[in-house]
Amino acid sequence: MISYQLRQREYLLQISRAMTSRLDLPSLLRLILTSAAEIVRAEAGLIALRRGQADSLVIHASYGIPVSMLPRFAPLLADFPLRAAEYAIPDLQARLNLVARAIRLPLHQVIALPLTFEERLLGVIYLFRSGSSAFSANDENVLASFADQVAIAVRNAQLYQQVNAEKQQLDAIIEHSADGVMILDPDLRIQVFNRALSQMTGWPAEQAIGRQCYQVLALEKTSGRNLCGADPAAAHFDGEAPLIVEGELARPGGSRIAVSVTFSPLYDEEGRLSHVIANVVDITRFREAEEMKSTFVSVVSHELKTPVSLIKGYASTLAREDAHWDSDTVREGLQVINEESDRLDALINNLLDASRIQSGGFRLERGDVNVVRLAEKVVESFRIQTDRHHFVPDFLDDFPTVYGDEERLRQVFNNLIGNAIKYAPQGGEIRVGGWHAADNVTLYVADQGIGIPLDEQGKLFQRFYRVDSSLRRSTQGAGLGLYLCWSIIKAHGGRIWLHSEPGKGTTVFFTLPVEA
Ligand code: ATP
Ligand code: MG
Known about the structure:
Blueprint: H1 2-20, H2 25-39, E1 44-50, E2 57-63, H3 74-77, H4 92-103, E3 109-117, E4 120-129, H5 137-176, E5 180-184, E6 190-193, H6 195-201, H7 205-208, H8 213-216, E7 219-224, E8 243-250, E9 256-267, E10 273-282, H9 284-319, H10 327-358, E11 367-369, H11 371-383, E12 389-395, E13 402-404, H12 406-422, E14 428-436, E15 440-446, H13 454-457, H14 470-474, H15 481-491, E16 496-501, E17 505-513
Parallel strand pairs: 12-14
Antiparallel strand pairs: 1-2, 1-4, 3-4, 5-6, 5-10, 7-8, 8-9, 9-10, 11-13, 14-15, 15-17, 16-17
Bound molecules: adenosine-5'-triphosphate and magnesium ion.
């Protein structure tokens, strides 16, 4: 008997060692349960743990009992006391008899071992025997001496699990944040690099981690205090205050984005910098919107002011009571007023169209359009405005009608031919023509004007974009015409592009579908 107890103690010691090195809760519980069962020669057992702060128990591990039967053990887990000091499960044996009969398992003896930690019950280990020999006082003692160790091991594993779960949550939040996030060590080496930042910079996380942050987040044209600049001494933390920098980031494809970076310091208990959290936000759209707003204001004020001051000037001159104008002067003045109000009207319409396109409220009213006639009519309306330009129609025979919105397409011709005149101040030939394929037509307007530098050609279809040249200052325009053309052609399912050589001329092409 003594040697059996000795063996029990030795065995306990071994298990304690094994337990303390395990942090994975399920495997720890399995180890505890099989060991406890072995120590007191029990054939079956359960470990039930408290669910959080609640006073109910949930089975976490079982031994010698088919898993499908575990729910039937609920009566054993009921009436669970909150405080360790009150621990007792009344009528335990009677409850077991009830369960055993119901599930037809020969479980006759039961012993319940509370697991307590700092006065709190963490859970209970139940052990069962099938025979008639009840658990002895010695069994109970041995188990009791084992219980404290078990409780500590379980508590550690639970804490570890909790910390792990929290870390996973945090990792997931950082990884899936829409903003770029990176965590730096005090030497500004990257430790964490999230997905959004990979997308912004083109650096895969595994390549970015371990590098100095200035290598990965190489900002140009910075303003503010850049901790990731080539010269880190240029920025340092002063207490808790974050450092903020704005700049441009060159991306792998050659495009650029504007970003704002906020560096926040984290200090350890001794007040030493332990980490830096960098939050990177793409502010390209914000900047574009800002620029757009200021361009809008300057363009609109400039373009509106000119006609308004002309109208005002002529109107007040003609209205002077002391003057007697001859009829020619009056007609001339009224003509200017008429033309300038047309210009105002056109500008306001363009602005309204542009804002309609922006808000998605742009609808086409389609029908069959004879584009050859439409082009001729627009040319006619321009012919009287210029004697320097020579118009040449150039359409292939049997030109099909297109399925489109006639008014919108008139707008397209109006702007393209208007541009051809405006940007060919010396005059020359203006060709308007087209050819057709099976399901679409290609139309073009070609001039012999000043042309467009290659690096500007891609930007002309943006709102308010005008090429900066001496002609820009001397011609009127809001930079909306090509944007509207582009939007109208796109809405028709067509394409618009241009071919231009500075000093030689420009041809703008667009396609339209022939049928619905
Ligand atoms: P708006 O059409 O709003 O009155 P705009 O003519 O300046 O003003 P767009 O028609 O959008 O605006 O043209 C944008 C810019 O593209 C022009 O300012 C001009 O610099 C350039 N551009 C357009 N067409 C030509 C052309 N045929 N030749 C040379 N430059 C052109
Ligand atoms: Mg124009």
